[in-house]
């Protein structure tokens, strides 16, 4: 509360049954109802320990359940839980006191619960027909029920309790309906005109009230996108206007003593929901607000900001890592070689000045070195708390420049609400954040995603790097893009701050690897009318020159069809797409769940593997290969998974295989010439990991370049499957600068661990009976179960839950690979799959090696001289 | 000119239950909506062995050959479409290759038809033996008839962990081990009798010799 740190956290189920419907705070415990009432859990407020739990049978997980508590007297309190068809009463220690089934629960949606001193009111709604009011006494016995006709009530109608009235807002007709709980026979309606309010798009505002307040708020959207609000009071006599407020985006009515107090918040952009916590008995308020950009803010009554938490970082959907720019000095040096001017004198002067600056910098560095040495003696007492080591970095002016081995990076995150942030990788500090309020992620195969394209990297000084994020417009579904400088977070010239809305829908997009004169990689977007658009437009000529060799693949996940298009340029129509191939994967209602390309950054060091008989088996390295997995269930409700390897240029089906009696979720890793994927085996009830390795054979078809149009013969597919005794939530593979280092797989497990596993364990050639040749090659004998060593868990005790994906990036050092796991938490580290083979050890004896070398040189010189003298003497004889 | 291949399957099938018809059309006009003409039919004799024949409808007319030549000049793509008529409806899949490869090889091509385990058509690809365009011209008489090879590939079962084999291997190893142990047990006495017997003899002799040694000792002491 004081500093915004999380005291405790309990992670609930990922599916619908883990969705929290309602929560109440009761003395020292927090009671939460989840998944439409499937779980009722009570946690201790101070420690977060689960005190008790109750499971109920619920017909429909999606209907929200309600919870309330009833104070009968000081000692006895009853927790009332309402699910879709039953009401439960519990005492404070979680014992079920009574249980009552609700009538007609298949037709009536019971969704409102209010508890008074001596009665429980439950209201159920039948769409477009009527409302049912059930009243119970504290022992759970049902009193006669009433029903009031309400033909106007619909699926989206929002209602709430207000004092002893039940208030509903009819948005379309601008009517407030109210129903007295004392005489629940008929709804009394008040038109907006009668209340003298004019309102566009009205909305009920009290989202988290317990229904004891007599006032309620209605939010209106006026044309200027600034909210206005009215506060109304409902009583037996009808609805009265209490106050009109302007410029208000959030409103909360709380009961304080005998008085109702309402608190408003006014801010132009974000939508704020307020929860007010009362502090002691003084009328001082502190407010927690959750804003539209997913940040949580604690405000004090004076309007002072106490803390801000960026909860958006737990909903990251797209990520990219970029290198930091080189320091200005290095940049100047590179600049000298980069320019193509012929002015000799100018270049000479340039050279002299840069060298002078270099000398100057060298001296400063030496001075700084001495200073920092002294400084570090003071620092030594603080200990090496690695969570707070960014303070020292911040002192440094040049911390945003590349380090020697390019290990520090800037992480670009895009969250689901359209917030783009830049993080400094060594500390995780947020460098900049920008909210794109109208942006929404694309939806593909059940996943939400944005695309982040690094159109110009940081290595082209003096050009600024720039990056483009693409999504769709929240309402219209049209394409949206926002271009920014990833280091500073500023938008590129003539990009509107909210992002640029394109006048077409995006079907597919690709960033080409070719660069134009200004080192910009063109972004090619295919719209739904099969026309290509090129961004930035200045690169269109480059794209036109490449049009003959450009192919693009799209996947229709609804109909399970794959289409391949070639780019055609004609003067009258511009760049258009022409369908050249299609595949039909619509089999037995399967749906496509994964479409995995290779990482474009990846380098493959060796073209083949050397076998024990000294022959070479060449890898099938098709850069256009894409892995498509599809899941479905057959006529007898048994799941299956199909895996297809498709050449995305020619549409050639390279390989396809089928797993029976298994189900997803399938996670795929696609790298070099191999594919690893996992699935759940329904028959044996275990997670299995399968590996496919593709080889061209002993002969390489085309050693210089791979061409999908002239493909090599269908490759040899080696395959094997293994068992892993854990649930995998996502998988990734390490990536290094040159691809020399061994590959390791990173498996994020449901237990919160990130397991590092060497690829050699997932070699399909692991023999059942090892021979001498296998031993010579160093292949491990086959064991069906993969080992799960605790030492291989790279995050030690820092568990990360609900990992959505793992992003890997190469560092400047070949042995290092940088990994970033994101999901509920963000975890960043670097791994060394082949140990630190390119770094000298800390205890490396420089002095010894140096002296030996020097000694050898002296000895060789001496002996040369002696030999010469001896030869001379012999000659004299 | 649009040749159209009908793939007819199930005429000489080993499994009579698989009877479905596939049609194959080819487009040689480049454009957003190419029109396909019948090129021929493919008869799949057996999916398992992948044996299939291509039967051409008609030889190409001079008009068709002109169109093909024009396509080669423009470095265009020769497209084919294949269709199967199943109970659930007609399924289409298509593929393409560079027209020059087809032209220069004298209409020699390989069609690879991909099918799922229940023999639904999922994909096709067309390849020609000489993929690179050399700019050769082919005599007219070689351009009338297609020389097509058809391959059929069916989805293979995915890999499964070889637990059965591994368990057997482990059991075999354990059996060997226990067998070895049993042999050891059985032969324990028999194996080490040559050590035990001399030891026993030595012990017995030592017991027998003890008084002697004592006597010797005492005798020595007496001297």
UniProtKB/TrEMBL annotation, chain A:
InterPro entries: Beta-prop_EMC1_1st (IPR058545), EMC1 (IPR026895), EMC1_C (IPR011678), Quinoprotein_ADH-like_sf (IPR011047), WD40/YVTN_repeat-like_dom_sf (IPR015943). This is ER membrane protein complex subunit 1. The chain crosses the membrane at residues 844-862. Belongs to the EMC1 family. It comes from Paralvinella palmiformis. One of its GO terms (biological process) is protein folding in endoplasmic reticulum. Component of the ER membrane protein complex (EMC). Keywords: Endoplasmic reticulum, Glycoprotein, Membrane, Signal, Transmembrane, Transmembrane helix. Residues 1-311 form the EMC1 first beta-propeller domain. Residues 671-876 form the ER membrane protein complex subunit 1 C-terminal domain. SUPFAM superfamilies: Quinoprotein alcohol dehydrogenase-like (SSF50998). It is found in: Endoplasmic reticulum membrane. One of its GO terms (cellular component) is EMC complex. It is a single-pass type I membrane protein.
TrEMBL record, chain B:
The keyword Transmembrane applies. The keyword Transmembrane applies. It is a single-pass type I membrane protein. GO terms for cellular component: endoplasmic reticulum membrane. It comes from the Eukaryota. It is found in: Endoplasmic reticulum membrane. Keywords: Endoplasmic reticulum, Membrane, Signal, Transmembrane, Transmembrane helix. Belongs to the EMC10 family. This is ER membrane protein complex subunit 10. It comes from Paralvinella palmiformis.
């Amino acid at each position: 509360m004081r500093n915004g740190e999380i005291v405790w956290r309990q992670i609930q189920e990922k599916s619908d049954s883990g969705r929290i419907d309602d929560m109440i705070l009761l003395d020292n415990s927090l009671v939460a109802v989840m998944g439409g009432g499937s779980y009722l859990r009570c946690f201790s407020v101070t420690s977060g320990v689960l005190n008790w739990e109750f499971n109920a049978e619920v017909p429909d997980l999606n209907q929200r359940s309600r919870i309330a508590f009833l104070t009968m007297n000081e000692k006895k309190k009853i927790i009332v839980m309402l699910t879709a068809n039953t009401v439960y009463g519990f005492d404070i220690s979680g014992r079920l006191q009574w249980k009552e089934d609700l009538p007609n629960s298949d037709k009536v949606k019971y969704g409102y619960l209010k508890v008074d001193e001596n009665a429980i009111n439950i209201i159920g709604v039948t769409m477009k027909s009527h409302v049912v009011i059930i009243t119970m006494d504290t022992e759970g016995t049902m009193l006669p029920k009433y029903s009031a006709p309400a033909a106007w009530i619909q699926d989206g109608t929002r209602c709430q309790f207000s004092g002893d009235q039940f208030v509903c807002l009819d948005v379309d007709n601008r009517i407030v309906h109210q129903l007295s709980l004392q005489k629940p026979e008929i709804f009394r309606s008040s038109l907006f005109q009668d209340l003298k309010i004019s309102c566009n798009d009205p909305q009920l505002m009290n989202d988290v009230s317990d229904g004891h307040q007599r006032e309620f708020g209605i939010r209106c959207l006026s044309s200027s996108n600034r909210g206005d609000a009215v506060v109304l009071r409902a009583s037996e006599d009808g609805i009265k206007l209490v106050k009109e407020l302007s410029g208000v985006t959030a409103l909360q009515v709380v009961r304080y003593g005998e008085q109702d107090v309402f608190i408003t918040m006014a801010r132009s952009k974000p939508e704020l929901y307020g929860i007010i916590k009362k502090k002691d008995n003084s009328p001082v308020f502190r407010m927690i607000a959750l804003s539209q950009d997913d940040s949580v803010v604690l405000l004090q009554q004076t309007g002072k900001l106490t803390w801000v938490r960026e909860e958006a970082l737990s909903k990251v959907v797209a990520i990219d890592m970029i290198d930091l720019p080189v320091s200005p000095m290095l940049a100047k040096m590179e600049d000298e070689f980069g320019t193509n001017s012929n002015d000799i004198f100018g270049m000479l002067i340039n050279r002299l000045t840069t060298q002078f600056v270099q000398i100057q910098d060298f001296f400063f560095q030496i001075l700084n070195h001495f200073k920092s040495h002294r400084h570090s003696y003071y620092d030594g007492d603080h200990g090496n708390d690695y969570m707070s080591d960014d303070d020292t970095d911040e002192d440094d002016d040049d911390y945003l420049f590349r380090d020697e081995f390019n290990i520090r990076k800037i992480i670009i995150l895009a969250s689901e609400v359209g917030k783009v942030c830049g993080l400094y990788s060594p500390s995780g500090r947020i460098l900049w954040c920008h909210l794109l309020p109208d942006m929404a992620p694309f939806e593909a195969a059940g996943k939400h995603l944005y695309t982040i394209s690094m159109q110009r990297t940081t290595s082209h000084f003096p050009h600024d790097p720039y990056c483009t994020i693409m999504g769709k417009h929240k309402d219209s579904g049209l394409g949206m893009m926002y271009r920014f400088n990833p280091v500073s977070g500023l938008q590129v010239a003539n990009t509107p701050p909210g992002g640029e809305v394109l006048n077409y829908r995006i079907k597919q997009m690709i960033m080409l690897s070719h660069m134009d004169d200004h080192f910009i990689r063109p972004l090619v977007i295919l719209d739904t009318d099969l026309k290509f658009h090129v961004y930035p437009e200045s690169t269109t000529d480059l794209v036109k020159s490449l049009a003959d060799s450009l192919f693009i693949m799209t996947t229709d996940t609804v109909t399970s069809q794959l289409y391949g298009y070639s780019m055609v340029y004609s003067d009258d129509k511009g760049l258009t797409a022409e369908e050249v191939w299609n595949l039909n994967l619509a089999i037995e209602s399967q749906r496509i769940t994964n479409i995995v390309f290779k990482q474009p950054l990846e380098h493959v060091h060796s073209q083949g593997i050397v076998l024990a008989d000294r022959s070479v088996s060449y890898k099938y390295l098709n850069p256009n290969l894409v892995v498509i997995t599809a899941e479905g269930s057959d006529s007898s409700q048994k799941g299956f998974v199909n895996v297809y390897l498709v050449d995305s240029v020619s549409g050639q089906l390279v390989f396809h295989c089928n797993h029976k009696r298994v189900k997803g979720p399938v996670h795929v890793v696609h790298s070099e010439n191999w594919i690893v994927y996992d699935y759940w085996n329904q028959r044996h009830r275990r997670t299995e990991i399968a590996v496919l390795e593709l080889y061209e054979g002993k002969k390489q078809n085309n050693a210089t370049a791979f061409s999908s149009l002239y493909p090599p013969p269908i490759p040899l597919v080696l395959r094997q499957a293994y068992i892993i005794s854990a649930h995998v939530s996502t998988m990734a593979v390490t990536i290094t600068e040159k691809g020399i280092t061994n590959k390791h797989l990173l498996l994020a497990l449901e237990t919160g661990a990130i397991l590092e596993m060497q690829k050699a364990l997932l070699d399909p050639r692991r023999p059942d009976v090892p021979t001498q040749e296998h031993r010579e090659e160093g292949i491990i004998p086959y064991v069906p179960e993969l080992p799960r060593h605790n030492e291989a868990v790279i995050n030690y005790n820092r568990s990360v839950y609900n990992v959505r994906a793992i992003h890997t990036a190469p560092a400047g050092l070949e042995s290092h690979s940088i990994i970033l796991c994101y999901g509920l938490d963000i975890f960043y580290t670097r791994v060394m799959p082949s140990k630190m083979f390119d770094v000298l050890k800390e205890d490396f004896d420089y002095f010894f090696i140096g002296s030996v070398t020097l000694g050898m040189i002296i000895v060789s010189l001496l002996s040369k001289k002696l030999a010469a003298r001896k030869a001379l003497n012999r000659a004299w004889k | 000119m649009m040749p159209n291949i009908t793939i007819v399957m199930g005429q000489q099938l080993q499994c009579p239950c698989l009877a479905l018809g596939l049609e194959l059309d080819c487009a040689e006009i480049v454009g957003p909506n190419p029109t396909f003409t019948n090129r021929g039919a493919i008869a799949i004799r057996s999916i398992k062995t992948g044996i299939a024949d291509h039967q051409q409808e008609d030889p190409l007319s001079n008009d068709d050959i002109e169109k093909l030549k024009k396509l080669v000049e423009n470095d265009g793509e020769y497209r084919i479409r294949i269709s199967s008529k199943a109970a659930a409806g007609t399924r289409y899949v298509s593929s393409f290759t560079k027209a020059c490869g087809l032209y220069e090889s004298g209409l020699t091509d390989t069609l690879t038809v991909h099918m799922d385990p229940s023999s639904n058509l999922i994909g096709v690809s067309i390849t020609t033996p000489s993929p690179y365009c050399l700019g050769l011209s082919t005599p007219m008489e070689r351009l009338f008839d297609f020389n097509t090879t058809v391959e059929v590939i069916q989805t293979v079962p995915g890999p499964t962990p070889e637990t059965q084999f591994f368990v057997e291997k482990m059991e075999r190893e354990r059996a060997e081990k226990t067998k070895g142990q049993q042999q050891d047990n059985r032969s324990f006495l028999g194996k080490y009798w040559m050590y035990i017997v001399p030891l026993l003899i030595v012990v017995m002799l030592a017991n027998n010799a003890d008084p002697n040694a004592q006597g010797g000792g005492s005798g020595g002491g007496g001297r």
